[in-house]
Specification:
Elements lengths: L8 E12 L2 E13 L4 E5 L6 H8 L8 E10 L2 E2 L5 H7 L4 E4 L3 H4 L6 H12 L4 H14 L5 H4 L9 H13 L5 E5 L7 H18 L2 E6 L2 H7 L2 E6 L2 E7 H6 L4 H8 L40 H5 L5 E4 L2 E3 L3 E2 L4 E2 L3
Parallel strand pairs: 3-8, 3-9, 6-7, 7-8
Antiparallel strand pairs: 1-2, 1-4, 4-5, 9-10, 10-12, 11-12, 13-14
Length: 334
Amino acid sequence: MPDGAAPVLDVKGLKTVFQTRSGKIHAVNDVSFDLRPGELLGVVGESGSGKSVTMMSLIGLLPSPPADVCAGQVLFGGRDLLKTDADALRGIRGKRIGFVFQDPMTSLNPVFNVGFQICEPLRKHMGLSKAAARNRAVELLELVGIPDARRRLDDYPHQFSGGMRQRVMIAIALACDPEVLIADEPTTALDVTIQAQILELVKDLREKLGMAIIWITHDLGVIAGIADRVIVMYAGQVVEQAPVQELFSNPQHPYTRSLLKTIPSVSGDRAPRLQVIEGQPPIQMKAPDACPFLPRCAHGFDRCAAENPARLAVGQGHDVACFWDPATGGPRHV
C-alpha cells in the first residue's frame, strides 16, 4: 500500500433513509471513511448496524424508492458517484468496482451456466469477443482455484458446492480487473474449512492483483487475520476506526470492547463463559441526536443523552465517537 497515496475511494457524510409505512428509518447517518490503494478495510458490526446498506449506497444498488441516499459524497476516480447518472454508474459497477454478495446460493442465476455469467461482464464492459471472453473466463476460474475450469464453464450453479459457488462469484467480481472489490460477508454461509480457503484465496488475489478491498463482516476473528484497518459501525454510523492491531490492543469505544469480548476463546483448561451484549440495536425513526449506544452502555453520562458524539482522534489513524475515556474511567476532556 503506497504510503501517503491518495484514497481510491473517499466517502464523506453519507446518509441513507428508507421510507416505510411507519415513517422514515435513518439507516446510514453521516458515515465518512476512505479506502487507500491496495488496502483491505474491514467493516464490522452487528446485523442491522448499517454495514451492507452503506456499501450498497455507494454504488447505487439500493432500490429507490424506498431507499433515498439523501446526503454525502462518494469520490471515486475524480467523480462523485452519488451525482453520476444511472448509465455511467452501471459502467463503473462490475468494471471498476466489483461486488461479492453474501449468499452465492441466490446471487448466481440458476438458469444460466457459470460461463455465461462470467462472460457477460467481459463482453459488456471489456468488449471481448465470445471466444476471448470464454478464454478469459477459464483463466478466472483457474485463478480462484476451480479445477477443470474449461469443462466447468458449462455447468450450472446447482452443480457446484457452496464454496465453489462463492469462488465463481469472486471470479465474476474480478472479471474486469476492478480497482476496488467490496465483499459483503462472503463466507457467512460457508463451513469453517471453506471459509478458511476463501480467506486464503482473497489474500493471494490481493497480493497478485493489488486491488483495494472492503470486507464486510460481523466476525472479528476474520478481520484480525486479513485487514489492515477496521471501521466499527453501530446504528448506521462509524463509532470507531483504527489500524487492525491497534483496534484489538486498544479499543476505545464501549461497543468495540463489548464486541471483542464476544469472540470465543479456547485458551486455558476451561473456556470462559461466552459474553453477550445486552439489549438490541435501535430502529432509528429519527436522525440521532444522542449516542445510539447509550441504552446498552455501562459508561454513559448525561452528555451522552444530550448529543451524539463526533469522532475524535485518539491516536495515529485511530478515532472514536465516544465521550468516555477507558484510560481514566471518566469523561474525555474535549
